[in-house]
Specification:
alpha+beta; 4-stranded mixed sheet
């Protein structure tokens, strides 16, 4: 059996044209990018790195397989 984790991605375009992407439920997961698409990809990649780091350091040890999905805002 697996557990599904969904993370809400918030994307917003700044006044200077840059995009900012953030997952509020994962502290530290915030990136800037030149386009919506690159920012979306970068925030997902960073979220996966943060989750992997937590697993590596024993901060989050799932009892079963973990499935991750991202939901755009």
């Amino acid at each position: 059996m697996s557990r599904l984790e969904s993370f809400q991605i918030e994307l917003e375009q700044e006044d200077d044209g840059r995009w900012i992407g953030e997952i509020a439920t994962l502290p530290g997961v915030m990136v800037y990018g030149p386009t919506r698409e690159t920012t979306l990809a970068a925030v997902q990649a960073l979220a996966l790195r943060v989750l992997a780091d937590r697993l590596d350091h024993g901060e989050a040890v799932p009892n079963e397989l973990m499935n991750v999905s991202f939901v755009g805002a």
